[in-house]
Structure formats: C-alpha cells, structure tokens
C-alpha cells in the first residue's frame, strides 16, 4: 500500500467525527482490504462493502448512460451521501474504493 494512502488512513482514524472507514478492492467482487471502526466489523462490514460497491457501479452506469453522446468518459471522483444519522463519503480510484462513515453532529 502506498505511504500516502497509509498516511491518509491514519489521519482519518484520528478525527473524532469519523466512525470508521472501509478500504475496498475495486473489481467484479468488492472485498475489504482494511477497515477501522466497530461499525465495519464482521458481517456488518461485509454488508456495507457490498452496498458501497453496488452504489458506485450504479452511479457510474448512470453517468455513462447520460454522457454517451458527449463521449468524454466521465467518471465518479467523489460521492457524499447524507442520511438522518450519518454521512458516508466515497472516493473511488482505479484500484480502491475508500468509504468513510462520519457523524455530522460531531
């Protein structure tokens, strides 16, 4: 894992409003490479990983559908989803998906 990524994960873990993060592999089968936070442990973490992978795929497919005529190959850079309780931020790149669960009230 690149040192910059290690540094980013350490920094994320130190924020008091961050409930946890998931670092996921990118591909046909999304798998957890690393995680932090109780909320992402065990089966719950696997559920989050699966859903996050599906969300990114779905949004990317939608982008491709609407930008077909433009032929610019638009890609997701960052997604932010806010619910009543949490905020999840997803940053995809070529090899990884980084998802951070955050408590906006903190």
TrEMBL record:
Record-linked SUPFAM superfamilies: Roadblock/LC7 domain
Entries under InterPro entries matching the protein: Roadblock/LAMTOR2_dom
Highest rank taxon of the organism: Eukaryota
SMART domains: Robl_LC7
Domain Roadblock/LAMTOR2 as annotated: residue spans: 5-102
PANTHER family: DYNEIN LIGHT CHAIN ROADBLOCK
Family from the record: Belongs to the GAMAD family.
UniProt-recorded name of the protein: Roadblock/LAMTOR2 domain-containing protein
């Amino acid at each position: 894992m690149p040192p910059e990524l290690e540094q980013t994960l350490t920094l994320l873990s130190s924020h008091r409003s961050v409930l946890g993060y998931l670092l996921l592999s990118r591909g046909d089968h999304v798998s957890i490479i690393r995680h932090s936070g109780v909320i992402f442990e065990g089966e719950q973490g696997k559920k989050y990983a699966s859903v996050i992978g599906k969300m990114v795929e779905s949004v990317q497919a939608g982008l491709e559908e609407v930008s077909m005529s433009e032929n610019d190959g638009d890609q997701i850079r960052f997604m932010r989803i806010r619910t009543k309780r949490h905020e999840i931020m997803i940053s995809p790149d070529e090899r990884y998906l980084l998802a951070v669960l955050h408590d906006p009230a903190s």
